Automatic annotation (TrEMBL):
It comes from Stappia indica. Gene3D superfamilies: Diaminopimelate Epimerase, Chain A, domain 1 (3.10.310.10). Belongs to the diaminopimelate epimerase family. Catalyzes the stereoinversion of LL-2,6-diaminopimelate (L,L-DAP) to meso-diaminopimelate (meso-DAP), a precursor of L-lysine and an essential component of the bacterial peptidoglycan. The gene is dapF. The record marks H167, E216 as: Could be important to modulate the pK values of the two catalytic cysteine residues. Homodimer. This is Diaminopimelate epimerase. GO terms for biological process: lysine biosynthetic process via diaminopimelate.
Length: 302
């Protein structure tokens, strides 16, 4: 057993779950194979994303590094941003926190509930080369892409948008009627998406409610995906399917999305949860859960 076991937190946002390390004082370096082992549901801690909290080069409260369960590093994760925002606000005793990511600077703010956090996710990007797509499309509200027979496709004509990562949204009558575990990998890795894509099946319930299921790039089926909820909210409003404020219903629960008209920024609001604390042996990759203490949450993982 290693002399230095690494403390961590297990958190989730609507079931989209994370392991969180605090690397601001001492680095936490894990190779992709170790990340995959730790993230495995069978034998590992189990997570959708691994979050490493680091010192911010740009002067924000922290830098958030994000790895998917498959070991790949990604630029954005909305639910994780809410979780880390909560931790930083509790640590600093403040009502707001700034978080630097590879996708840019994000701001988290408190609500009337300590578990419920709002994050400003910035502006969406719609140009084909910003998403990015392999082919040029002038209108990304509905691109030419389908799977299945030409005369009877299973899914077709998705809306595409980048909200820190690429998303494709297929508008359907019943998101639960499709085998997303089979279709998702094909679409995630479709040649149209050179950086792969997150795949959503969305059904508009009303002017301010949408039902969604998500296949997340590098993760698979997920209970909730914050950036997917943002992408769906924006794409629905852009195509006049809904207004600019929607509640997005995911398997893990609802997220409130506002695509603000004044500056085109996306605001995402939802719950966060601390599941447990633990210690990881970096040599054996075994872990144990530890009893919670009275310290601010983020101090636990220092």
């Amino acid at each position: 057993m290693s002399e230095r076991r690494i403390p961590f937190l297990k958190m989730n946002g609507l079931g989209n779950d994370f392991v969180v390390w605090d690397a601001r004082e001492a680095p936490v370096r894990l190779d992709p194979d170790a990340i995959r082992q730790i993230g495995a549901r069978d034998g590992g801690i189990g997570f959708d994303q691994m979050i490493t909290v680091e010192r911010s080069p740009g002067g924000a409260d922290a830098f958030m590094r994000i790895h998917n369960r498959d070991g790949s590093e990604v630029d954005a994760c909305g639910n994780a941003t809410r979780c880390i925002g909560r931790l930083l606000m509790e640590e600093n005793g403040s009502a707001a926190a700034t978080i630097e990511t590879n996708a840019g600077l994000l701001k988290a703010s408190a609500t009337d509930s300590p578990r419920r956090v709002t994050v400003d996710m910035g502006r969406p990007r719609f140009a084909w080369n910003e998403i990015p797509l392999a082919e040029e499309f002038h209108d990304t509200r509905a691109i030419e892409l389908q799977i299945g027979p030409i005369d009877a496709p299973i899914l077709h004509t998705p809306s595409v948008v980048n909200v820190g990562n690429p998303h494709a949204i297929f508008w359907v009558r019943d998101p639960g009627a499709y085998d997303l575990s089979r279709i998702g990998p094909m679409l995630e890795n479709h040649p149209m998406f050179p950086e792969r894509a997150n795949i959503s099946l969305a059904h508009v319930l009303s002017d301010d409610e949408v039902e969604v299921r998500v296949w997340e790039r590098g993760v698979g089926l997920t209970e909730a995906c914050g950036t997917a909820a943002c992408a769906v909210g924006v794409a629905a409003a852009r195509d006049r399917r809904t207004g600019r404020k929607v509640r997005v219903h995911l398997p893990g629960g609802p997220l409130d999305i506002e695509w603000r008209e004044s500056d085109d920024h996306i605001l995402m609001t939802g719950d966060t949860e601390v599941e447990f604390e633990g210690l990881l042996d970096p040599e054996t990759l075994t872990f144990e859960k530890t009893a919670p203490g009275d310290r601010p949450i983020l101090e636990v993982v220092r």
